[in-house]
Amino acid sequence: MLLRLIVELEDNFHLSPHTVGLMKDTLVEQIKSMLDMFTDPDELIFMVEQRDYEGNDMFWYLDEFDIYPILDCRIMDKVIQQKWQGKFEINASILDYSTSYTML
What we know:
The chain is an all-alpha fold. The chain has one domain. Helices cover 62% and strands 0% of the residues.
């Protein structure tokens, strides 16, 4: 949301692109240093999946404001891998998850 504020300030007050770029780079570096504190992707995935008041999640902001350097953090690799794999195995049959079938 801070990135949105920076872009709106640029539009409304006609800030120079250099100044906006410096603010954006500083903010991205601060986000990356904050992400380095996390060691477990389960802690971070909760924040990644949260949505703002307009229904946008973190991946929308990554695309909208072109802040892909945030993905260079090692913890983000784990989060993306966990999101990619998903919570459920989709190549399984109903019998694979049946407790009685497993016991049999």
